[in-house]
Amino acid sequence: MLGSTIINQQHHTGLQKLSALAAVAHSTLGPHKNYKFIQDEATGESTLVSSCLRILDNLDLTTCAVGQLVHETVRAHHEVYRTGSGCLLFFAGVWSRAALLCLQQGIPTSHVVAAMTEGLDLCIDVCKQSSVSFDALLVSTQKRVTEATPDSEVSKGKRRVKLSRHFCNTEPESISVLDPRLPDVAHLANGLSHGCNDTMHLVIQASRIQSKDIQSSMFDVTKVTTCMLPGFPEDHAHVSPGCIVLLSADQTSVAHHLKNKPLNIVVIGGDLSHTYRHLGFNRPAGIQYVSNHSNLSDVSKEEEWLGKVLALMSNLEVDLVLVSGLVSKDVIQLCSQHRILIIGKVKVSILKEMAFATGAVLVTYATQLNKHCVGKGIQVSIWREIPSHVGTSLTAVNLYTVGSTQLVTVVITSPLHGKLQTLEDHFWACAYRLHHALKDKAVLPGAGVTELFCIHRLVKNAQAENPRGGTSGSNPYLGIVLHLLTDSFMDYLSAVMANSNGISQVKARTVVNQNLQDVNSVSAEFSQLVLDSDEDVRSSKVFDNLSVKQESWRKALDLVLLVLQTDAEIITGVDESKQGNQAGLMFL
């Protein structure tokens, strides 16, 4: 990607590389995801992707410091929010171009930083003012109206948000909601589906299994897991209570032996192998172990460890072992011979729920196990046998506890094995949108409306500024920077519309300008910027996540300003003994 872009080696190469790398986000915006094949030229292997994170995962960024920083930022955001990564990367690209344009016009770095920060503050304020509280959604659901008492209702959704200039997650401060009732989860989820209607239906089913009531707000995403099942059509996707996992042929016979019996369970956080050490463990360096006795035994350290672990589990009468990390094949094979079922790669949140429900104690190493760590009250049932004619013969089992738990498994299916990862990503994006909406107790008007409001605010403030001095403010270049930020939001809406309708960027930008003319009459709650010609979409209510959008913008600007400062230090140098050299720099 970077190799095809001309980089000016003398002026802010970091910003240029950031802008070039962010171009991968363009095709991932909007409700219609474009699939891409990434091929490894060395091996010839290809990967099917439809998100900017998966694209970055499959690019070689080891030789590009900016690329590694971008990848780490996007991955950190994805691990928390599971959505909004494309928005983050896109704005990082357009804002890096805006910063470059400012520098090319001779605007000092300090003024660029201050003006872009102020522009983000204005957009965050727009989000606070246009957010829709659950009170408003509840009234709208009950009365089935297409317009809302916007000013008073929207004001209830206002919140104070602390801005951060660092790569940290900043949660919005809690707000008081006058009415504790919440809108129908299904109604809310459909507005957050963003084109993934079938996938969001699975999320709604999972929520209903957890809550047993469609009007309840209960949805704990940490107690939801996925099981990817190749070989079946996508419409065979299924939601089931409990924890469904796939077993290999060696483990299947053990599962049949243990099925429908009360089992003893232990849970282990980390890898189950003799070489595993917990995070932060440092082996002493430069130490040699000397023994007076030669070791005549041919038993290796791994075999010795295996024997110790097996003896310990046998003495404790362990039937089932759940592990958060990887499990050695030798461990699985040996334990299967002694009818002990071991399952690896289990989410930590699932382990904790299983431990709570059974009384088991989570340990880091198998050698820490004792009788007080063993839990009871869990059973294994054969959920489905997968015949060999659809691929490798597998067995899916369901782990469930005798007591009540909220564990839910979403089984994702596809005849294309390479598409399973993408379908799983879509599911988690939908699940986390609903999760964050319920957590925020408010949503934003979606389908481009919030961005339109941001453009309107930026234009209004830019027009009030004198670009070349004479302003009462401390930044004489604020108007110029705000106009550039306006263009960035225009580029975003145009890209989303072009991806949605397959139209050109020029035509999309024209439509955006037409909608902008009527922004004053646009309802802050339900009117939508039409991004699709389908009448059903046009009349639908689309929502965005408040916290996700704000955090995407924050991280995007953090990324740009960090690269901007680094470029400035490389070009001008920094002498800490001279205060004047620091005037144009911002230290994060």
In short:
The chain has helices spanning 13-21, 52-57, 65-81, 85-104, 109-130, 134-143, 150-155, 185-191, 197-211, 249-258, 301-315, 329-337, 348-358, 420-440, 449-463, 478-501, 505-517, 535-539, 546-572; strands spanning 36-39, 46-49, 132-133, 224-230, 238-241, 243-247, 263-268, 320-323, 341-343, 375-386, 394-401, 408-414, 442-445, 543-545.
pLDDT < 50 stretches: 1-9, 144-148, 150-180, 522-540, 574-588
Number of helices: 19
CATH class of the largest domain: Mainly Alpha
CATH fold group of the largest domain: GROEL, domain 1
Kindly report how far apart the N and C termini lie: 29 Å
Instruction: Kindly estimate the percentage of residues that lie in beta strands according to DSSP.
Output: 5-15%
Rg is 27 Å
Choose one word for the global shape.
globular
Characterize the largest beta sheet: strand count, sense, and whether it forms a barrel: 6 strands, mixed
Write the CATH homologous superfamily of the largest domain. GroEL-like equatorial domain
How many domains make up the coordinates? 2
Q: Mean of the pLDDT scores?
A: 78
Main sheet: strand order: 6-11-10-7-8-9
- Percent in helix: 40-55%
Structural classification = alpha+beta
Annotation, overall tally of beta strands: 14
CATH architecture of the largest domain: Orthogonal Bundle
